Amino acid sequence: MNSTGDKLRALRNKYNMTAQELADKLGVTAPAISLWEHNKREIDNSTLLKIANIFNVTTDFLLGAPAFKPTLSERDEKDIQKRLELLMNDLDSETGLAFYNGDGEMDDETRELLRASLESALRITKLKAKEKFTPNKYKG
């Protein structure tokens, strides 16, 4: 089930809906539904959004994006903040990496930019790890 048409047909069948019933809900004809399901015509964006709402799915799902999108839990957020504080403290120590001219302290603006970059990197890393290591049975 790769194409949008395949997904549309599967959803319609899952909800025991005829092509005519879906057509009526969308304000189109049953032949239009058939053309979409057989991948002979593309669905315009506004209709795609209506279909997503009818079947309670995302447009990303209909367009073929992966169904599983990892999210960060409250615990993940706390872990990120804890790790970020450790990294920033390491940078502030005398043995820490010098990011500002090698012999001076970082100014507040540079420190905040570095903090934001590190936090972003930690979030991305945590999300990628969840995506990679979450067992398939939990990916929906």
Q: How many beta-strand segments?
A: 0
Whole-Å distance between the termini? 15 Å
- Rg calculated over all Cα atoms: 24 Å
Uncertain regions spanning at least 5 consecutive residues: none
The main sheet comes to: none
Strand/helix succession: HHHHHHH
The helical percent reads 55-70%
Features:
elongated, 63% helix, mainly alpha, 140 residues
Topology, pairings included?
Blueprint: H1 4-14, H2 19-26, H3 30-37, H4 45-55, H5 59-63, H6 74-92, H7 108-133
Helix pairs in contact: 2-3, 6-7
Q: Any overview of this molecule?
A:
The chain has 140 residues and is mostly helical. It is built from 7 helices and no strands. Helix 2 crosses helix 3 and helix 6 crosses helix 7. The longest helix is centred in the last third of the chain and has 26 residues. The model has no long low-confidence stretch (mean pLDDT 85).
